[in-house]
Structures are given as C-alpha cells and as structure tokens.
Amino acid sequence: MSKEIIIQGLTKAGKPFRPSDWVDRMCSTYASFGADRKLKYSPYLKPKVVAGVRCLSVDLKLKDVNPEGYQQLMHFAQENNLNVLDDAGNSIEVTQA
After folding, report:
1. Which residue segment(s) compose the domain that 38 sits in?
2. pTM, two decimal places
3. How far is CA 79 from the centre of its chain?
4. Which one of 18, 30, 79, 90 is most buried, by most CB atoms within 10 A?
C-alpha cells in the first residue's frame, strides 16, 4: 500500500501552478509552534522537488490523524486541477469522502 502521495505543482494541462510558493504556504498552514516557540512543519507534509517540479509530499497517515485536513488538501488539488501521484509516480484520481 502507498505510504505517500505527491501533489505536483503542475496542472493536468501541464502548466505550472501559481503562486510558485504554494507548497510553502500549505506546509505553513499545517505547522504548529513547538515548546521552543519555533514554527515546526507537520511531519505529514513535506516540500519536495520531483523532476524539477515543486511538489508537496503528503504522508497518508494524515488521513488518520487529521481526516479533515487530508480532505482539504485533496479538495485543493481537485479544485486547482493539480496532478496527484502515488509513491510509484503514477497519476491517481483525487476522491472526496
């Protein structure tokens, strides 16, 4: 079973998604402040570059620990017509619960 999915910074039409800092914005949305008062990214979301394209790696454990957050990410990908890949690099359909 897949352990992560990748939301590419490319639309299904092959166009780069704008704004270019969308990955950082998503990671910041799910970040929290630690005991040291520093902002820490969620362990379930990681910026990634795949074949020169900025992407968001989503650990599928997010479905269990934050189902609403996971659905928001899937909705974002669907609404913006972004490519979503499984951990083998195959394009997958985004489904809403």
Report:
1. 4-86
2. 0.88
3. 13
4. 30
